[in-house]
Every structure is written in structure tokens, then in C-alpha cells.
Amino acid sequence: MSKRSKGQKNQRTKPQKQNKNTRGNTRKLPSIKETEAYIKEHNLKVMDPLSDYGFKRLLASERNKDILMHLLNVFISDDTGIITDISYLPTEVLGIRKEDRFVRYDLYCKNQDGKRFIVEMQNGKQSNYADRLRVYTSLATVHNWDKKDKKYERVPKIYSFNIMSYDMPEFKGKKRFFSKIYQKDDDNDIFSKNIVYYFVELSKFAAQLETLDMSDERNRILYMFTNVVYLQKNEINTLTPMQMRFYEECQINNFTDMEKQDYVKSLMEYPSVQEMMECERAEGIQQGIQIGIEQGREEEKRQIVCNMLAKGFDPDLVAEIVGLTAEAVREVSATA
Fold it and tell me: Mind listing the pLDDT tens digit for each residue in 39-49?
């Protein structure tokens, strides 16, 4: 799959500065005239699914629950079983006591078996995000358990699926872009899978894009999240049916005036993550090139060692000349 052309403008615009006491959804809804002008200026044709509005329009609407089910099935169905139906639940959940603060999920739903799913899109880095998720899953557990019958086996299973635009500090140094967290014991055996946390780190995905197998359905769906606004005509013609559903739902021409206004408002407030992801991708490509160079050097050394040994040079002398350990020279000799 190709990357966006150089002439295309970036939809993910940098946020305008806001007073620290007025952050959040405080921007006034732009007029239709302002909206159309913004769309024309930025050449907007495809909705960015990583914007706040785009994410919720794509996954939190009844007409698109097939896209949500597909996303969850390809990533977490090994734990949940295949999801065949989804019901959307209220996204605001009150605390245990009257004076406790409430929490607001990006998306909250249950499947045909009553399992609960919390789906979050996290664009900006947030300290203690893992602790925030503990609160989210704890409240979802308490509010969906019928305490009157006192049967703990009926405590609902909670699955927290998190799409991150940045690298999680907890996974620093780990290459994988999809992680799952279970409760485990000292022997690393699973203690419970009734609450599971899943993380998709899009920056790591973008960094590895050049080397990924794009026949893998997980990679396909994440590619749509990160690159749907940049798809070229030749790519669109090769989309799978689900990818095409995704693409069609992101077409701004199909929006009502109000939907366009809401989307543009979301873009104006939306922190840019594309530059960061492209930087991560560039770093990933550079690392791959460097690894290739190093591998080439090692292969060159190996060939020199083989040639010198074949001419009867002493292995210790070969090691000194080439800059390898004697053990490494012996390994080359054994595999030559």
C-alpha cells in the first residue's frame, strides 16, 4: 500500500492555543460558511477516524456497529469469543457514592453474551493512564453486577480496548504494537481473564508499516485508521469489503451540514498526531536500514573469515585481523 502523495495537505492540523482553564470542547461551532471554507482550504475529502468526532462517528453509531464488531473480533475474539451483536450503553457512569465523580467512556457496549467492552481513543499523552483504566473497569464491574443474588460467577467480564496515538511508557523498548494484559501469578500463569486490557500503539504500527504483512486483517484495519485520508485511487480499487465500508463512512461528501460543522470543530480542537506517527515511521525505517547495513558488514566479515581459513590461516590470527572473537571464528568455520 502506498503512502500519501507529497501534494496532499495534512488534515491533522495543529491545535490552536487555549487558555489552560478553558481546555476541552469549548470552541464555538463554526458556521456553515466557515465550515465550507475550512474544508476547501484544507482539501478535506475523507474524514480522519483518529479525530474525536471521526472516531465516534465511525465506531459509536448504530449503523456502523459492523465495523466495531470487526475491529474487536480481529483483535480480541480469542478471549471473548466471536462477537455477533453489539448493544451500545450509556457512556457516562456514576461513582459508587453520590459525591463521587462520574467517568465518561469514549465508547461503551456489550455483546450478545453480556460481556462489556470499553473502547477508548487516546490522542494526547496522559500521565497515569493505566490507573485511569483501573477506575474505568472497576466501575463497569460494579455497575453491571446484580449484588442481590450474591453470585460472583455472574460478575460481568470487562474488556478494555485502547487505541493509542503514542507509545505507552509501560511498553518502552518493546517493538510490538498490540499488547494484552491479563492478571497473572508469580509463575506468569494466568490468574484471571475476567478483566483484560488491550493496547494498540499506532505510532509503533506506523514505524513498522514498510515491513508488515498487509494480508493480515489486523494490519489492514489499522492501516485504514492511520492512512484512510491518504489512500490513492489504485489502493481504493483493491480494498476488501470491510475496508470499503470503512472508507465510505469516512467520505465527507456524504455528511450533512451539521456533521460537517461538528467534524471541522473537532479538527480545530484536535491535537496533531500524524507528524509524530510519521516521525516514528521514519525512525523505524532508518533503524531497519541500519540493521541491514550491520548485517551486510557481518556477512562481509564472515566471507573474509571463510576465505582466510580456506587458505590455511590460523583461526586466532584470523580473529585478530578481522576483529572477531576466536569463538566467533570457530562458529563461522563450523558452518562454512
Answer: 999 899 999 99
- Tell the burial category of 189 from Cβ atoms under 10 Å away from its Cβ (0-12, 13-18, 19+): exposed
Handedness of CA 196, 76, 72, 113 (dihedral sign): negative
Residue 285 burial (C-beta neighbours within 10 Å; 0-12, 13-18, 19+): middle
The Cα 35–Cα 41 span in angstroms is 10
**Residue 324: CA count within 13 A, CB half-sphere:** 24
The Cα–Cα gap between 86 and 6 comes to 40
Low-confidence ranges of the chain (pLDDT < 70): 1-27, 93-102, 144-152, 154, 270-297, 299, 311, 335-336
Cell numbers at residue 221, please?
A: 484495519
Q: How far from chain centre, in Å, is Cα 173?
A: 17
Residue for grid cell 483504566: 133
Q: Where are the alpha helices (DSSP H) in the chain?
A: 32-41, 52-59, 65-80, 129-143, 202-207, 217-227, 233-236, 241-249, 257-269, 274-310, 315-322, 326-335
pTM, 2 dp: 0.71
- DSSP 8-state secondary structure symbol assigned to residue 28: P
41 touches 264 (CB < 8 A): no
Length of the chain: 336
| Contacts with 301 (C-beta within 8 Å, 6 or more apart), sequence order | 322, 323, 324
Residue 13: Cβ within 10 Å count: 17
- Rounded to the nearest angstrom, the gap between the alpha carbon of residue 111 and the centroid of all alpha carbons in its chain is 22
Other beta carbons within 10 angstroms of residue 282's beta carbon come to 12
Over residues 242-296, the pLDDT tens digits come to 999 999 999 999 999 999 999 998 888 765 555 555 555 555 555 554 555 565 5
